[in-house]
Amino acid sequence: MFMGRIRLVCCDLDGTLLNDDKSIGEENILWIKKLREEKEVPFVIVSGRYYPSVKRIADRISTTGPLSCVNGALLYDEEGNEIKSHTLPFEVAEYIYSLSTQYKVEMLAVKGKDWLLKSREGYLFKEKKPIYITDGTLVSFKDALSSIPVNKLLFMAEEREELNKLENEIRSKVGEGVSYYTGSDFLEIMPAGTNKGQAIQDLSKLLRIPMSEIMVIGDDINDIEMLEEAGTSVVMENADQRIKALGDYITLKNNDNGVAHAIKHFWNEISSI
Questions:
Q1: Phi/psi at 146 (nearest 5 deg)?
Q2: Cα gap 58→90, rounded to integer Å
């Protein structure tokens, strides 16, 4: 519940700051600018995306400061230096990859600012622009995962059933030894305890701002932990009802500049002093 003043605003991207077409509303950009210039309060992106993707959006809204990426697995300062990295143990990454080879799935891994992939051919997100035609480093996962620390394993498949089978096997054999995030056509495996709640704890320590003075804005299941732990929790109108139950305030939809509306709603409570 709301505990007092707000000295930091942390915001999700997809379904929150970004419209459905991945554009950013001009009103959102205006109020993020006002937040920085008039209140001197940081606006920090906390996203499941990796650094290059998050940085491009940060540049579009002209925000400065740290960036939290890969659902809390990576934290960067405003110059792009890695200041916090949570990685999967080698033996866990190797074991999960070995399990995945039984299923019709493709895998990529995130290592810091880079994608690791075994081939530039293979599964591409349905009805989306291919994400790794030119980006990423080619590796042999069988060999690489024993020596390269990775922050996330990302599995994709043409059929959701294949991902469900893989997830069920990982859960039965690895259990809570890792963190999970599932979408309509992907499965993400991250280090145990890695989530956006831990992400804002890292930001709290870095910026020396108590959790009670952090406002977060989100819409999806990977936002649950930060919505539960922040002093002020804002949920988008387009979120699922289960997520809305975690909000101190329900703002407008992402396509209706809901982030700007939330900042305006709490404007009097926002202060750097």
A1: -85, -10
A2: 32
